[in-house]
Design goal:
With about 750 residues, the chain is α+β, with helices and mostly antiparallel strands. The model has no long low-confidence stretch (mean pLDDT about 95).
């Protein structure tokens, strides 16, 4: 084991001793050990983790630029560790290995019950520094009782409530310099050597990846700043202050009458407090993050001049995979809003929101948005890690929890469209990345989930339980209809994944057929009307292959749209299916009309009302009624942004091929606007086998489509319309040459209104 010889260490504090009002955290312990590096050092590798969150230092230098390590996991089931090359941070002679640790997700108060779910004090540190010399000798510095410990500037820290810092004390990096007399520090307490839960971090780390400059827009108790974008991160201030000045940083997503709107934060305090030393200094917290666009800076007990103020934005450092742009600035804004919501909620796990007392890995949100996320960014390792944790949290009876990492007793398990993440995400992961390992790792969990659904059904009809089509507008889909539809969907996806693995899928295809029959017998009348008669119930039936008469089912979908004035009523579950199904049945005119609408409810309505991210509710804010229910009203919630999937796979037409996952081949099937409200679109997707670029323009009903891709990637161009001309690699060519083209230009006159499935 990598950490053999090391011990978990703490400062020995086993109870709450903090004295900071509003933040239930102890002063963060610092640990350090001095050691000597001799001549001939070739390589130095640091392995580190914590029960808590930590920053590691070599001398006065941060060991890496990673944040909130070791990440959000169920610490009772898996603890991730990190590996850093720190060779260039060491010098010949005396050096110091150190770290500072806070409660974080391990011992901090989490979610809307504000409880400690995985552990309590003490927070613990585990490190091993391996020094390799040119003569072949190796030396190891390990955490044990020889380490010294003290407290410092971080008086209290909380993921939800923020941080309190005494800037009159040394900066964290200064605690690991030779100027500090660590002999006066206490000896660290050894806490054992159980490393059985340790696992290397495989997903990309959290980093600061964007910096937004603040503009002063008003004053309440303090100056209020607008950073122009709702995002997740922390404030960074360069100030000049008097000794003892108290500066409080408050965060909010919106303004209400010129004041910071914080009612939707619920029990999360979301404030950082600094007690200043005299002179210039930087104010920024270490072990927390906030979701905000606006911030208020309150100066008390002295004076301070703010010379710079920024929002340092953090999220997992995922490589950008997709780009999208079109002739509609409204649609472009909807796209970037969803992209920013993805960034703000991909912080260790795919969370629901980054601002209030929640910030949990809701499985329903993740499965609904996963395809949009994969188009936007390289999520291969990110979702593989999330699925690992989901498997660890799966119950013995197969039920999958509503959130992962699971917080015991907080939420339920076995919920339709939430637990189905264990089938939906692996299927789409393999479709996008062709990573067979992910299928192999998850197929047993998928089978267990399907079996749980089967045994917790009556004649294959699932009970009317769960969240339903969460936050739908004006219509409520029967929960049994939705749950049974998802039972069928997970069964079908399990069969498809078994096909990819070369397994026996016959049982699951047979079971799918049985569920389909049961669904129609129980929920559909003789005229094809499905129980509850909502947009979502027809979308589920069409998208999941459940209806026996697809055209009749689609006719009912159109009827439910028309009775609402062609406005959507879908919530989290139905919204991702709406635009694709309309296009599949030749009503791209309606799909484009919905994405371009600014009437309530619509994506455009939120943009018209100032959204810079996707809102949790269609009515999170309305001019008539103001803010929505403060009990649950996030302004950064990616679920309703699942329309991004449609932008890539329908507007641009970039789609993977099920028979050859991982984009070994690509289908190009753009769907243009028959009413010419959008006249061009362009974008790309960087897949496992190269980059695919698509651009189309519509001039007087003639579409010019340009596709660039790797020559070895087979392209299947599927166009509804009359082809006028074809160019392959710059020369006129027959359409039969398109599959192997590196660059292709096709001019055609689209036909609209045809059913494609």
């Amino acid at each position: 084991m990598i950490f053999d010889g090391a011990k978990w260490i703490s400062n020995g504090v086993r109870e709450y001793v903090g004295r900071v009002k509003g933040v239930h955290g102890n002063p963060a312990p610092y640990f350090r050990k001095d050691f000597t590096v001799r001549k001939g050092l070739v390589k130095a590798t640091l392995y580190a983790t914590a029960k808590g969150v930590y920053e590691a230092y070599i001398n006065d230098t941060f060991a890496s630029d990673e944040l909130l390590t070791p990440g959000f996991t169920n610490y009772n089931k898996v603890i991730q560790y990190q590996k850093y090359d720190v060779t260039d941070k060491l010098r010949k002679g005396k050096n110091t290995l150190g770290a500072v640790v806070a409660e974080g997700w391990y011992a901090g108060e989490l979610a809307f019950k504000k409880q400690q779910y995985f552990g309590s004090w003490p927070v613990c540190l585990l490190m091993k520094l391996v020094l390799e010399y040119s003569d072949g000798e190796t030396e190891e510095i390990v955490t044990d009782g020889s380490f010294k410990t003290s407290t410092g500037r971080i008086l209290a820290s909380s993921i939800l409530d923020g941080e309190v810092v005494d800037n009159r004390k040394p900066e964290s990096f200064e605690m690991f310099t030779s100027k500090v007399d660590s002999e006066r520090w206490d000896n660290a307490t050894e806490e054992g050597d159980d490393f059985s839960l340790l696992s290397p971090q495989t997903e990309e780390p959290i980093r600061f990846l964007h910096r937004l400059k603040g503009v002063r827009v008003g004053h309440d108790k303090g100056d209020i700043y607008d950073f122009g974008q709702n995002a997740a991160g922390v404030l960074y201030l360069n100030v000049k202050a008097e000794e003892g000045t108290k500066i409080t940083l408050r965060h909010g997503e919106m303004l209400d009458g010129g004041k910071l709107y914080t009612a939707n934060l619920r029990l999360a305090r979301c404030e950082d407090v600094f007690y200043c030393r005299s002179g210039k200094q930087i104010l920024t917290p270490t072990f927390t993050f906030h979701g905000f666009r606006y911030a208020e800076v309150i100066v008390e007990n002295g004076s301070a001049k703010i010379e710079e103020i920024y929002h340092n934005v953090c999220h997992n450092d995922l490589a950008r995979a997709g780009l999208f742009d079109c002739s509609s600035e409204l649609v472009n804004k909807i796209y970037t809003n969803a992209l920013w919501s993805q960034r703000g909620n991909f912080i260790s796990v795919p969370t629901d929101c980054p601002q209030r007392d929640e910030r949990l890995g809701w499985t329903g949100d993740a499965q609904i948005f996963c395809v949009s996320a994969m188009y936007n960014a390289d999520c291969r390792r990110f979702f593989a890690r999330f699925l690992r944790d989901l498997r660890l949290d799966q119950r013995e009876n197969g039920a999958v929890p509503d959130v992962s990492p699971e917080l015991s007793g907080l939420t339920g398990a076995g919920t339709a469209a939430w637990g189905d993440a264990i089938c939906v995400i692996p299927y789409n992961h393999y479709l996008f990345y062709g990573d067979r390992t992910v299928l192999e790792d998850n197929i047993d969990a998928m089978k267990k989930w399907v079996e749980y659904l089967r045994t917790h059904s009556e004649n294959l009809i699932r009970p009317a339980e769960g969240y339903g089509d969460w936050l739908s507008v004006g219509e409520e889909t029967d929960k049994s209809v939705l749950a049974t539809a998802y039972f069928a969907r997970s069964t079908y996806l399990t069969a498809k994944c078994l096909d990819w693995l070369g397994g026996d899928s016959a049982y699951y295809y047979f079971l799918f057929g049985q569920i389909k029959d049961a669904f129609n017998k129980r929920f559909t009348d003789g005229n094809g009307v499905i129980k509850s008669d909502t947009q979502t119930c027809y979308l589920l039936s069409l998208a999941f292959g459940l209806c026996e008469d697809r055209e009749a089912c689609f006719t009912h979908l159109l009827r439910t749209l028309e009775r609402r004035g062609n406005r959507l009523t879908t919530g989290f579950v139905g919204v991702s299916l709406l635009l694709p199904v309309l296009c599949d049945f030749g009503r791209e005119d309606l799909a484009y009309g919905l994405i371009l609408s600014t009437d309530y409810p619509s994506w455009g309505f939120t943009v018209k009302n100032g959204a810079t991210t996707i809102w949790e509710r269609w009515n999170s804010y309305t001019p008539e009624n103001g803010f929505g229910d403060v009990g649950m009203n996030s302004f950064n919630h990616y679920s309703l942004g699942s329309c991004v999937q449609w932008m890539y796979s329908y507007m641009l037409g970039i789609r993977p091929v099920e028979k050859t996952p991982g984009f070994e081949e690509v289908v190009i099937r753009p769907v243009t606007d028959p009413l010419h409200r959008i006249t061009s679109a362009s974008g790309s997707y960087q897949g496992e086998n190269g980059r695919i670029d698509v651009e189309w323009t519509d001039e007087d009903g003639i579409v010019t489509l340009i596709v660039d891709k790797p020559a070895e990637m087979t392209m299947h161009l599927e166009l509804d319309g009359d082809v006028i001309s074809v160019e392959v690699d710059g020369e006129s060519a027959p359409i039969s040459m398109l599959p192997g083209a590196e660059s292709a230009c096709v001019r055609y006159r689209p036909r609209h209104g045809g059913i494609r499935i």
